[in-house]
Amino acid sequence: MPKKEYDLPDLELMQCDGFIPKEEADSYYTSLLHTTPWREYAMPMYDKIVTAPRMVAWYGSAEEAGEKALPWTPELSALREKVVKETGLEFNAVLLNLYRNGNDSVAWHSDREHLIGSNPCIASVTFGQTRPFRFRHKSDKDAGQLEILLHHGTLLLMSGTTNTYWEHHIPKSAKDMLPRINLTFRLIK
Ligand SMILES: O=C(O)CCC(=O)C(=O)O
Description:
Helix content is 21%, strand content 40%. It has 189 residues and is of the alpha+beta class. It has one domain (4-186): Jelly Rolls (Sandwich), CATH 2.60.120.
């Protein structure tokens, strides 16, 4: 399977388009879109609680991923197995994000490391609408920005110091956009 890598400071990404072949990706997309108990996500922003512009679902065992985690489904376990086989890494929880249309987005952030440790490996799988995924360095302004496209069936592995030094972001878009589902597999320590 062809893999793309990017040569930027402190950044370690491995992108594998077509990781899930089209027909199988179509089936995951339809099933996850319609059977996932999507919920809103309320998050603190300055002195307020705001609703994130996307829907989420969190899966894992209660021991590792907490009381609010939903138990693994056969479908998500099968996807996790594929990701484990491809990356040689262990993952025990997965966050699903649903971007309903171009108004949904995720703001600049890096993933909070209190559960996943420093320099975590995070494996992202996308289904549905292709959206740009942007990276910016937290302190090195000369490192520039990177924009990649995450397609239906793409696997992106973020590892090394990527999460420590870089933030990521899915921008809103004024274009007509179909729903996009993203799964980020994590290892809760
Ligand atoms: O939707 C994506 O590709 C990224 C999701 C994300 O940044 C996150 O779950 O922290």
